[in-house]
Design a protein that fits this description.
mainly alpha, about 65% helix, elongated
Amino acid sequence: MSNPGNIVGGHKANLNNPNTSEEAKQHSKEVLDQEFNGGNIDTSSGEKNPNNVAGGLKATVNNPQVSQEAKDSAKDRLNQMGA
């Protein structure tokens, strides 16, 4: 099965698209209600991709718009991660 978040997102987008028919909107509503608990999906796996986290921290360190305190915190977290 495809990523449930993508499926739900597509159906929610369809419901809000003024260019789709009422029949298509009804179908999306039925799919969300019957298969995806009304569009509420569990995204709380708690697992974050460590490479994405490190990338975000590195971006924080190099962002001139970020305070020195935030940069120092990001550097500390990167060191803890071994990145």
